[in-house]
Amino acid sequence: MSKQPRKQRKFRYQAPLHIRHKMMSVNLSPELREEHNTRSLPVRKGDTVKVRRGDFKDHEGKVEGIDLKHYRVMIEGLNVQKPDGNQVYHPVHPSNLMIVDMDLDDDERNEILERKG
């Protein structure tokens, strides 16, 4: 793999969905790290996350949506008002988040945690 910034950018812009999903990894809280013996996991709809940087620092909310094309996460309660009065989600980059509570309803996700741990 190349170190050149232009090739790194090209890789991110042209990455297929299965790799984009891995790039959407978010650090786990210290309690979850200890419990599951892993540092980070790809974020999913239904997880509860805490914002660690930016205008909405320390805000906790449930993940409402994930934008794989632009590498952004939509969080419940993180809204901004547009000039026409509409409320829209304020997208946040996953590097600025921390998973506080995971949605463990999915069997595949449980298998991933067992495999990593």
From TrEMBL:
Name of protein: Large ribosomal subunit protein uL24
GO molecular function: rRNA binding; structural constituent of ribosome
Function: Located at the polypeptide exit tunnel on the outside of the subunit. One of two assembly initiator proteins, it binds directly to the 5'-end of the 23S rRNA, where it nucleates assembly of the 50S subunit.
Gene3D superfamilies, per the entry: 2.30.30.30
Matching NCBIfam families: rplX_A_E
Family assignment from sequence similarity: Belongs to the universal ribosomal protein uL24 family.
Assigned GO CC terms: large ribosomal subunit
GO BP terms in the entry: translation
Keyword annotations from UniProtKB, A to Z: Ribonucleoprotein, Ribosomal protein, RNA-binding, rRNA-binding
Record keyword Metal-binding present: no
Pfam families tied to this protein: KOW, Ribosomal_L26
Organism annotation: Methanobacterium formicicum
Keyword Chloroplast: no
